[in-house]
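Entry for adenosine-5'-triphosphate complex. Fields follow.
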Amino acid sequence: MRFELTPRPNVSPVMRALAPVAAFITAFLIAGLVIWLMGRSPAAAFDVYVLQPLSDPWSLQELVVKATPLALIAIGLSYCFRANLWNIGAEGQYVIGAVLGSWLALKTHGTEAGLWVLPLMLLLGIIGGALWGLIPAFLKTRFGVNEILTSLMLVYVAQLVLDYLVRGPWRDPKGFNFPQSVTFDPSATLHPIFEGGRVHFGALFALIAVLATAVILGRTLFGYRLKLTGDAPRAARFAGFSSKSTTMAVFAISGGLAGLAGITEVSGQIGQLQPSISPGYGFTAITVAFLGRLNPIGILIAALVVALTFIGGESAQILLKLPLDLTQAFQGILLLCVLAGDALVSYRIRFVTRGGGK
Amino acid sequence: MKADVSSSGPPLVELKGISKRYGDLLANDGIDLSIEPGEIHALLGENGAGKSTLVKILYGVIEPSAGEIRWEGRPVSIGSPVEARNLGLGMVFQHFSLFDELTVAENIAVALSGDWDLATVRGKLGEISRTYGLALDADRAVWTLSAGERQRIEIVRCLLQNPRLLILDEPTSVLTPQEAEHLFTTLDRLSAEGCSILYISHKLEEVRRLCRRATILRAGRVVATIDPRASSAREIAALMVGSEVGEIRTDAPHHPEGEMLKVASLNLPPAGMHGQSLRDIDLTARAGEVVGIAGIAGNGQTELFAALSGERLAGGPDAVVIAGRPVGTTGIDGRRRLGAAFVPEERLGHAAAPTHRLSENTLISHAAAEVSRSGFILVNAARRLARTIVQSFDVRTPEGDPQARKLSGGNLQKFVIGREIIRKPKLIVVDQPTWGVDAGAARLIRQALVDLARQGSAVVVVSQDLDELFEVADRMAVIHQGTLSPLKPIGEWTKEAVGLEMLGVAQASGGVHAV
Ligand SMILES: Nc1ncnc2c1ncn2[C@@H]1O[C@H](COP(=O)(O)OP(=O)(O)OP(=O)(O)O)[C@@H](O)[C@H]1O
Ligand SMILES: [Mg+2]
């Protein structure tokens, strides 16, 4: 016996709307079960993971801070994924964006350089990420190399580049041999939106990216181009949309946004370069993009939700001694539940007993 | 010997009161139909009558809203194609269900339930292609094949499973007369071996040749069950449409003027290993005339279409000249901006995106249609355009702005042709304009193409249907293995001469039968 998925003849819009809600509840139930099996109270875990962060102003700010790079990167990835192109290397583009932007911060360190430094750093961040993203795009369009492999492998290259720089040429000479750069000057630092707050201007960039993308994907020929390329590649070619330039464009966009996320994180949050500048934002953003169903508003919500699991995970580690890996497991469960929910809305499962053989 | 239709036992399959509702639309409305063992039963009806819907229900692809299916007298519920295959049903769909990137043998292997390895499939494939004269190269990738060859894969794939009821949804719409004749022999033989066949076609002559019973649908209901040999094709068509189908008018005067399309010594290497190359193609089309290109599928029509449309670029700019401008190295949107329009052979996936609404599908020819401004989509203009096409070309839609896949095959064909004709292009190139459309709609499309020419456009029609070409073309050429015969006025061609050119034996004499 095996089972197969058959399309539902009529997909109800109510079910489609409720599917993510049901997915969330299911994911929480599964996670609760796991926590219970680990001998902790699921209720306490729920309190620590969800209720406490949402009721405390400090954590609420932290939520936005964590959601910012996730949303920026995931928005960029949604361009690729819509066109059925698989950029798995946003983490690397994030790192290279941060490196290139920081180069200017270090160059101007201790000088009287003024207001122009920060915008130029951001621009360099975008350029760095975009160029790093264009490598797999170029290899794909020129030589037909699979973009999944190249974009992923370039993540490790990027991380090693960063590692080399902070341990070697860019290390702070007065830093007691710690592998980190000098702390950026104020002119190279992205400031909080509110005096004394944690939320910096990067959050605004994410919001702008979300809104712009909503317009681009829904209302422009370029957005339609991506949709058509993803849904019917042959029709896209017939429409005059060259698949090569589409590939280059979406990789440049997603790389650029990842790079922007990288440089805003470094100059807004960390304040210096160090070997690790990301808890895996570039990979988690893939989850975020699909959780948000590649819809800009959906991605914004998904970024906040996933950020919540990050924060909840940290406090759960401290308060309940739950391993941090549980957070990642929960993100995975959540994604599976959402995808399964989507599938079950359009398909139903049917058990097939093997009758007459061949 | 054919099995006796009036034999006593229960019918092989019996449909009782089958209904299917899509929103407000009753695609099938209480349909009764029975098929005897060994019978070849025709299912007829105009575009959108509900034929594909009915056979998809029978094959377990879609679920009926009401009704019962009996198999050898026993009520069954067919929940999926797998169950249908296990019962002994085989089906060739109207639209291909093949993976472009896989080879012929792989495509067949993945669709078979049970354990088949490639070697066995390859062996069986050779056997079946030989027995039934359906030539197929097991190792070619599907994307290099013409529609006619793809259709062959689907048919062979079914025969491989020794079905007891074979459902064919417009199998011959892309076959050449010879291929079709092969198929009929095959079907006669299968029928004599006891296999029943449910046959959907818009070609009434072949139905009369093949079937002894025909069920006629109109707007989802059975309007008659007849013996097609006892009535003329005209009478049957009248039953289907509810009125007589007229002839098209071509008599309006025409004065071919400037050359809208000029192809000179066009050479194109094959796309991929097995594609057809184009050699020294010369072709002109003048404003005011219809130029026909005849030929058996797979002789370079697809490649020629791609070269004319700009989906593939020629070696130099002068190989293709549109409206006096050398465009050999200009892409498809550049050519559209010069006033050219193109309609490819495959409507689902090439001419239209299945899951996109009709209004979105108007964006595919955005380079020439007024549906965008400075990169922004004019949503309302696109909706209005889709509505106008639907009205002017009598496209029957199940809802206001449906997804393309929800249209019946013939209705989508009317839409994709209408989308291009409606903006009165100066040049239009159409590949298989009436593939799978009913007699009434075929007339509408042909008339629209002729009218367009008479209003001063150049029209190029690539078709396998010789009757169609003789009806609409002013000048005609035949394509064979990537070369094009001289373009001659239609009056100088006979069907025999065309047949010889199609087989590539125009110069050699005697010994070959005409088409
Ligand atoms: N998924 C769907 N949703 C809504 N309406 C549909 C769907 N599929 C088919 N229809 C509608 O049902 C009707 C019957 O369609 P069907 O495909 O059975 O026609 P057909 O007789 O096979 O026509 P053709 O000769 O053009 O292939 C059409 O009006 C079509 O638009
Ligand atoms: Mg049909």
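NOTE: Chain B touches chain A at residues 62-63, 79-80, 82-83, 86, 112-116, 161, 309, 311, 331-333, 336, 342, 344, 346, 349-356, 360, 363-367, 372, 375-377, 379 (CB under 8 Å).
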